[in-house]
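Q: Given only this backbone (234 positions), what sequence would you predict?
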């Protein structure tokens, strides 16, 4: 393969609010389009960096919500299913941190919300990679030229765990809603024997949760008890 090998492990997650260093291996970043992709036609063979570094991951900058990322992706040109995928990929790659960095073992650096690699996509400067709108535009250009298989968390499937949240964010942006507040019908306090839809927000025990999968609640299915159905927000 022309691509560098990315470490297999946990995706970036929110560890602290500032400069969090992950102690588990990260799995993120962009690489060239596969050799059999049309975007690779006529392209010289890519040569991986000949350097060795200790892999390190940092979560830095501002922490963007899925809705903020969805707005960036829309403004960059994403639409339809690829819009949803773009939000899920960003969440899997950077956990929403605008200055997230993964220093790879080959010493290249994956940068920003969509972890654009400094070696394979050197056309995207650091200034652009760490600027959310510019990172989104660079991501759209890279995606348009070679598809999502250039992102590690797409290939290893890590982005899938963020699809429900990404869809809810896209739906909210499509509906013109702002941040905060309940989404969809049947919001307010969680109640048993009630139908909830993906993306809907409820309160329970003084905390806010977002529905990850449409379902009808049952007694004992309180949001803290079923994390597969509810995501804790605040």
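A: Predicted residues:
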């Amino acid at each position: 393969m022309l691509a560098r090998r990315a470490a297999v492990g946990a995706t970036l997650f929110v560890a602290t609010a500032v400069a969090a260093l992950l102690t588990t291996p990260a799995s993120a970043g962009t690489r060239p389009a596969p050799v059999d992709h049309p975007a690779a036609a006529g392209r010289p063979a890519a040569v991986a960096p000949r350097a060795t570094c200790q892999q390190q991951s940092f979560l830095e900058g501002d922490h963007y919500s899925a809705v903020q990322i969805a707005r960036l992706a829309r403004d960059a040109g994403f639409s339809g299913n690829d819009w949803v995928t773009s939000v899920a990929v960003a969440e899997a790659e950077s956990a929403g941190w605008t200055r997230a960095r993964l220093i790879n073992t080959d010493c290249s650096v994956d940068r920003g919300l969509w972890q654009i690699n400094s070696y394979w996509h050197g056309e995207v400067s650091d200034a652009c990679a760490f600027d959310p709108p510019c990172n989104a535009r660079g991501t759209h250009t890279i995606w348009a030229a070679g598809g999502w298989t250039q992102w590690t968390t797409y290939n290893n499937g890590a982005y899938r765990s963020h699809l429900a949240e990404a869809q809810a964010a896209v739906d909210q942006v499509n509906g013109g809603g702002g941040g905060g507040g309940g989404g969809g019908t049947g919001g307010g306090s969680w109640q048993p024997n009630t139908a909830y839809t993906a993306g809907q927000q409820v309160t329970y025990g003084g905390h806010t949760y977002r529905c990850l999968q449409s379902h009808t609640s049952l007694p004992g299915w309180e949001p803290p008890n079923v994390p597969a159905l509810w995501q804790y927000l605040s």
